[in-house]
Amino acid sequence: MRRIGLAVVLAVGLALAPLAAEPQQAGRVYRVGVPWIPPREDVLPLIRALEDGLRERGYGVGQNLVIEYRFADGQPERLPQLIADLVRLNVDVLVVGLNPVAIAARQATSTIPIVTVIATDPINAGLVNSLARPGGNVTGLSADSGPELAGKILEFLKEILPKGPTRIAVLWNSSTSNYDPHLKALEEDARKSSVRLVRAPVQRPAELEHAFEIMQREQARGVFILVDQFIFVQRHRVNDLARSGRLPTIWTSREGVAVGGLMSYGPSVPDLYRRAAAYVDKILKGAKPADLPVEQPTKFELVINMKTAKALGLTIPQTVILQADQVIE
């Protein structure tokens, strides 16, 4: 089976400009703090990606670098205490993932530099003043992918569903407003395509079953899943419910497909963590977060789980398979 890469470059992507910075202090050991909501085993690929990126820039864990990991083990309420512990250690940089972690870190310190990796709508979230000139102590990478993502998702659904979709569900954590731009873009594209959007918001694990009952009652033919920390932790349960309802799923990250989802299309999260190492490097060499532009996604990846397609009785067209970065068989 032929597999080729898919790279989509957005004009809005902001490349990190080379900055004049102080050289690393000879013999100094730097300390980086990384708090997580999921347990360690769930984020091992992201840990490896971050450490690989740092290693490529001359940092060796246990040599000139110490990384202080803290894990909430799926319990977001533990996050403030974990971050407070890292602030007390006076780490040189905090590396944070999605908005709940970034916001908690920003509330905990206004002096320690913070590098976001997959922040959503960082301006409206109050993390930065602007993408070009963040101001304050926060910079990094945004996972915002603009309206192009919504259109591509609908395009894939049209290709893989017999007779095309007429009703598509969207599952997301409604306790955050950070996905409002994505929802608006998806609704606009759905309207243009004469597709009805079925909203299935959730905030707690107990609400997932009801959300899928809504999808079944509204006769949704597929579900688009916007991933955040809550959805990520619940990804196995989400896929179990989708399989029970024979609903094809399209995730915004590959982690949902690796555990039984049908497809994913979105930025490569491991790639974002690897690229975050460039921000850490610049800050450790003396650059100010306020002066480092926030970078947006430049590469999207398509992952297809053929086992799930077979279980759902779907035939994935060759035109879609040829676009895939990874095909799970």
Number of helices: 11
The CATH homologous superfamily of the largest domain:
Response regulator
Stretches where pLDDT is under 50 for at least 5 consecutive residues are: 1-23
CATH architectural arrangement of the largest domain: 3-Layer(aba) Sandwich
Radius of gyration: 20 Å
Query: How confident is the prediction overall: mean pLDDT?
Result: 87
What's the number of domains?
2
Number of strands: 12
Largest sheet: 7 strands, mixed
Overall spatial form = elongated
Q: State the CATH topology of the largest domain.
A: Rossmann fold
State the order of secondary-structure elements, H for helix, E for strand: EHEHEHEEHEHEHEHHEEHEHHE
The CATH class of the largest domain: Alpha Beta
Helix content: 25-40%
Content-based structural category = alpha/beta
Spatial strand sequence of the major β-sheet: 7-6-8-9-10-11-12
Q: Beta-strand level of the residues, as a percent range? A: 15-25%
